Amino acid sequence: MNRERSLWAALVALAAGDAATTLVALEMGLPEANPLLAALVGAVGLLAIPLSQVVYVGGAAAIVRVVEDHGRRPVLLAGISLSAIVVANNLAAVLVVGWSA
Fold it and tell me: What are the backbone dihedrals phi and psi of residue 33, each rounded to the nearest 5 degrees, phi first?
C-alpha cells in the first residue's frame, strides 16, 4: 500500500504541476493546446485549469476503484506518465518563451 500512496502522491503533484505550468504559460501569452480545455477557459476563465486537474485525478480514482488489485498500479503509472510528459512540455514552452523575451 505504501507504493500505491507514493504513486498517488506523484500523480497529484504532477497534476498540480500541470495546472501551475499551464497557468504560467497562459499568462505569458501561450495558447492552451487542448481544444476542449481552451474552450472551457474561454467560457469560465482560468479556474477551468485547476478544475480540469481535479477531474483528471478524480477520473484516475474512479478507474482505480473498479479495476482489480493487479490493475491499480498500471492505471496510476499511465496517469503519471501522461502528466509528466505534459509538465515537461509546458516547462519547455515556458522556458523557450521566457528565454527569448
Answer: -80, -25
Distance separating alpha carbons of residues 42 and 88, to the nearest angstrom? 24
Q: How far apart are CA 37 and CA 59, in angstroms?
A: 16
Listed residue (51, 54, 52, 59) closest to 76, CA to CA: 59
What digits encode the pLDDT tens for the residues 1-22?
A: 589 999 999 999 999 999 999 9
**Stretch (H or E) spanning 59:** helix 48-66
| pTM of the entire predicted model | 0.91
> Distance between CA 17 and CA 68 in Å, rounded?
29
Overall size of the chain counted in residues: 101
Cβ pair 19, 32 in contact under 8 A: no
**From the CA atom positions of the chain, what is the Rg in Å?**
15
